[in-house]
Amino acid sequence: MNALKLLSRTKLYWGLIAIFLIGVLGSPISSKGNNIFLSYGNLLDVLRQVSTTGLIATGMTAVIITGGIDLSVGSLMAICSVVCAMLLTVPGVTPAVVLGVPTVAVVALCLGFVVTRFIFLNLAKSRAGADAVRDVRLDGVRGLVTPGIVGVILCCLALWFLLPQIEPKFGVLGVLLVAPCVGLLFGALNGFIIVAGRLQPFIVTLAMMVTALGIARLTAGQNNAVLPVYTGSNATADFEMLRSLVFGVIPMPGLFFLGAILIYGAVLRFTPFGRYVYAIGGNEEAARLSGIAAGRVKIVTYAVSGLLAGIAAVLYVAQYRQGKPDAGAGLELDAIAAVVIGGTSLMGGRGSLTGTFCGVLIFGLLSNILQLHNINSNLQLVLKGMIIIGTVLVQERNAGDLLAYLRLPGGQAAHKETTATKRPSQETPSLNLGGNKK
Amino acid sequence: MKRRDMLKLAAFGAALLTTTALLTTGNAYAQDKKWKIGFSQVTTIEPWRAQFNKDILAEAAKHPNVELIVTDGEDKTEKQVADVENLIRQEVDALLISPKESAGLTGVVQQAIDAKIPVFVLDRNVDTKDFTQFVGGDNKLIGRAAGEYAVELLGGKGKASGNVVEIWGGMGTEPAHDRHDGFHEFTDKEPGIKYLLDQQSGDWKQDQAYNIMATALRNNEKIDLVYGHNDPMAYGAYLAAKDVGREKDIKFIGIDGLPNEGVQLVNKGELTATFTYVTPGAEGLRQAIKFLNGEKVEKTITLPTQKITKENAAQVLKDNGL
Predict the structure, then answer these.
(1) Where is this region: Disordered (chain A) (predicted)?
(2) Residue-level pLDDT at A430
(3) Which of B34, B88, B101 to mutate to test the interface with A (most CBs of A within 10 A)?
(4) A30 contacts in B (CB within 8 Å)?
């Protein structure tokens, strides 16, 4: 492990540091002689601005590692933001209630059932010992009855909590429960159609993107894209908590983003589920033959993607004091760009959340720097696009190939053994700092 | 292997240095300006918004001691909020903002006010009262002017008669309702005026207005006047009439009067008249500079409208350098 290898292994961090250095060195100086880019407020702004895209990109990363893609996240965010805003401002049985409350009931029922069953299964496995694990079967009581009862109890609890809130308007806690659940259900529906119908994720989520936008507009009703659903001064008090700085240091949306990265990152890295995700992306057929329930794992990744879109929507409503059918428009593309910059391969099987975290921050810092220098906004788009291509070339180590193709100096095929056979499988993502390990 | 990596590193370092150098030289030139004013625009791809930016930049060119920063929100709330935050960090002396919508931008406008930056809200209001000034047009006023002129065209006060086709903008939008209400304040007093359509919306678009008018022409032997809520829709109606050879016996009135759009059409004689919906760009910047120089400014400024007909269209085009 010489120094250069280490450098190339951690190049993403270097990219992040480089962007940061450019920002610091080239920063405009304020009238009081302070470095504007480095000013505490500016860095907080960046963290807050990237947190929505960041949450979406977090869910997207796992989906892309399994070899899929989720184009519907922007529209799911639109639905959830409309539901969230309407519950907060309009009392009575609105379309948002009709959509939201049954969703929570269904989600509570399913979650209670699945989680309880999962716990029983693992208990049984640990009791059976390592050799007999594959033959463990649950009996009727532990496999169906008890999980069913738990699910019903959870469902009743959720309804008992939500139903009294319909007539006045919903409280913040109720909304925090409903919006992510709506996202979760639609995400799970994506996954279910992809797995059960054996369709391409691209087309299924594309269809969902259109459908969800329609549902968002239907839910909003008269308050179409021109008029935000959620206006009014009472709204500001409700969500003060979600806009505030936690301990006066980190903006709440940023905390959600960091939390999502840490938790989901740990899940992908240290749990069997995480290993399954990588295995499916590497070779789905092989994964299935080795006994992984590939379909279920995929459904879970899409569901989590929807869940995070729902959480992002709540933060959107809190920040902008409105929910609209056009919230989150085009966000899926920003998220995919950030994920790919972070070294996750669209082919699947390769990538990491640390990479995505860097990718999101690189993108955010870049926008911030360009804006601080007041570069023409149309030129900004061109620069951003070029930087995406450049970063991905470096990520994929194909810059040398490109130069060689153009017969330029410094170009030689970076790795002559780019055949699929030589690509190591991803059993140990744990050493994989920047994503790409060849 | 090693040599290539060294090359890469060297290239990377060089790139880093050049960008830094470029960026630093970039800010050096603006040091001798007295005022730094930031303007956050929603989007730049609509004709009216493009004219808005043109007006404000032309005004800025007249004040050599002002540095104007124009940002583009790309028609997204998130982007516009980020732009304004950025301008606050740059410690602008005054902030001009034309909000995408009231609710979404109120928070960040409040943030600017809390940072002691004077805020000038243009064209669309926000849900706070602490800003320095609001500058905008009044769609009702424009509707009234159009209604008054329509009555005049159809025979004058008390004697006016004729069949009117009104083509709405978006049904859910405030400007469309204001332009409708103002117009009807005058025309509803005339018993001779008949309305042929019941709230048909062309969504501000030329092609949709064409289809509405084509249907109206088929259903009605006699149409005397078309009132489009903006110039493109009035022009779409004109084209529909032209395609069936009836454009000569119909008068067309539009609104917005952009030099490169409505005024040109009036000058060619295709529209009878248009009423300007002036962009608040130039006036807003003038007011901001006035305020920075220590003078008092009013809380609200309503921009007047101008009637543009065949007589003055050529002059207006000349004034705008067309």
Answers:
(1) 415-438
(2) 44
(3) B101
(4) 90-91
